[in-house]
Amino acid sequence: MTHNAIVGKDILEMLMFSLYPEAETIYREYLQNACDSINEAVETNLLAKQEDGHVTINIDTYHQKVTISDNGTGIVAKEAESRLKDIAAGYKKHKESAAGFYGIGRLVGAGYCKQLSFKTSAFGENVASEMVFDVEKIREILNDDECNLSASEVIDAVTTLTSMPESESEHYFVVTLTDILPEYPELVNEDLIYKYLVQVAPIPYLPEFKNNLIKPNITDEKDVFLSYYKRLNSIQVSVNNIVNIRKPYGLTIDGTGDEIAKLRFFTLTDPQYGDLAWGWYAITPFEKAIPDIDPYNGNTRVLTRGIRLRVHNIQIGNENFFDGTSYFRQARSNKYFNGEIHVVNSKIKPTTDRSDLAPSKEALKLKELISDFFNSELQKVYQTANKVKKEFERIVEAETIRVETEKLDISTDFPEKSKATQLSESIKKRTEAESEFDKYQNKKDNVSEGMKAMLDVYQQKFDKFKKDVSEGKIELDKGKDKPKGREAKPSIDEDIATLVPKYGEEKIDMLKRVFQIIDTRYKSSKYYEQVIKGVKSSVVNDLKK
Description:
Blueprint lengths: L10 H7 L7 H19 L10 E7 L4 E6 L6 H9 L27 E9 L5 E8 H9 L7 H8 E7 L6 E9 L9 H11 L6 H12 L4 H8 L5 E4 L22 E9 L3 E10 L9 E2 L5 E2 L4 E6 L2 E3 L21 E6 L17 H47 L8 H26 L7 H22 L21 H6 L2 H4 L1 H18 L3 H19 L1
Parallel strand pairs: 1-7, 12-14
Antiparallel strand pairs: 1-2, 2-6, 3-4, 3-6, 4-5, 8-9, 9-14, 10-11, 12-13
C-alpha cells in the first residue's frame, strides 16, 4: 500500500509569516523578481537594454499601502493563475541569469499586510490578470486546529483571479501590499527603505564614482574586470518621487573624509572551479576604522562601510556580513574598507532568506578564497598603513618643531646652544622617521597590488609635504596631514533646535517639514545634497540673527 505525500497548510506559516527576520527584506525579494523579469524582457528584445528596466516603489504612509511595479515581461493571461498560485514550481531554476530560483519569494509580503495582490500583463495581449490573496482568511485557516486542508487547498480557498482590459503595448508586474500591519511601521518609512535599498538593490553607481574611479581604474587592470563589470546586473529603481536611486559610494569615504586614490580590482579564482567572484575595494590612507555615524555629514548613518557580498548585484546579508573573525583574523578589520565582492559562478546561490550563501562545493571554496585574500592582502594593507602613517606623522611633527625653533630668538632663557640642540634633535627625529618610512616604500616590488597602491598614497603625501617645506608652507596640525577646520559640526537638526525659544515650536516644525520635502526630492543626488546642505545652513544662520 502506498501513501501519497501531503504538504500541510503549516508550510504556508513558514513561507508567508516566518521566512524573513527583518520586514524590509521583502523589498529585496520583490526587486529580485522584478530584475529577473526585466532581464527576460531584454533577452526577448522587449527592452533594448537592462538599464531600460525600471522598478517603481510607491510607499503610501497615509493609507498604509506599498506598491512595487516593474516593466519586465509580465505573465501571459493563460499562465497567470498557475504562475501566481504555484509554489516552488521552478520556473526560473535553470536560468543562470535569474537572481531568484526557489519560486517562493512572491508570498513573503503576506506576513506584513491584510491583503496581497499581483497584477500583470504581457506585451501583445489586450488583457491584464490580477490575483488577490486574502491574507486575513489565510491566518484564520492556519489558526484553526480543526482544519486539515493542504497548502494547495488553502491557496485555492483564499485567492481570487480577475481579468480586465489592457493595452496590447503594456507589459508589467505589480505587487501591492494593502493595509500594512501596525507592528511593521518600517515598511512605510520612506527614509528607512531608501537607505536600505541603496545598499542592497541591483542599481548603478553614482556618476562621479563610475566616471572618476571605476572607469579609469578598471581599464588599467586585466580585461576580465571590465568584462565582468559590463555584465553587472543593474536596473533603475525609484522610491516615491526619488528617481533612479544609486549606490552611495562617492569620491571620499563617508565617516572619515579620506579621499579615495583608486580602486583595487581582484578576482577570486580556483584551479578546479575557475573564477568564482570578482570585486573591488577603495585605496585610501586607511587612517582609521570607518564609524557607523558620519561626524562630517550631520551625524548621519554611514551606508557604505565594510566589504559587501553580492549575487546578481543584490546584497547578501547586511553590512556586517564579513565582520568578526570568520573571515578576518581581527574582528575590526572589515570596518576599514569600502568595497564589493560579486559572485560570478552560477552554482553559488544565496540561502532562501539571502542572509548567506547556500552550501555547495563552490560556495565553500569561495569562502575559503575570501578569507585567504582578506588576510593575505586586506588586513596587511590597513595594518601597514597604520605603521606608515605613524612614521609620516613623526616626520611632520619633527619638521614642524624644526621650523618653529628656527623662528625663535636667542635670549637668556633660550641661549644659542639650546636652540642648536633642539634643532639637532628635531632633524635627527625626522631623519630616523624618514628612514623607517623609506623602508616600507622600498618594498613595493614584493608586495600586493593593494599594498603598492596604499604606499603610493603615502609617498604622494610625503612628496607634497617636502614641496610645502621647501616653499615654506608648513600650516599643518602636529601629527596630522589634514586641513584645519575639519572638526565634526553640529547637524542641521541640532541647529534648528536652538531656534525654538526664539520662534516657537509650531514655526520650527513647519521649517522642518519644508526641509524634509526638499530632502525627499533630491537626496538621491550627491550633487544636490551638497547644494541643499548649503541652502539649509544659510536659512538657519539667517534665522539666528
